[in-house]
Amino acid sequence: MTMTKLVTDCIDACTSCAEICRKCAKECTSKGGMDLCVKLCNDCANVCDQHASSLHKGDHSHAASCVAACEACAVECDKFPSMDICRKCDDSCRNCAKLCDLAEAVKA
Prior knowledge:
- By secondary structure, the protein is mainly alpha-helical.
- It has four helices and no strands.
- 39% of the residues are buried.
């Protein structure tokens, strides 16, 4: 199977997003009142990992859940603009959602 650039960009975005979400969850664990952020970051990281793994096998079935998890995580992290890791996570999640949505839209 030959992967399109959009699919490889989506895989790369998922991998990067999962890494940043884990860092965000870890940093936010030590902060009070950030339980939802931690949960959504961990959920997003797991879904991104699953989607990237599936895409390597040509399976696009996790695209919608990846986009939804990234969007939910981005919305939550956007609530904490004073935290550098949350800003990075927000940006990474929005980028991942966009790229995965594009890859899904043009899949064969």
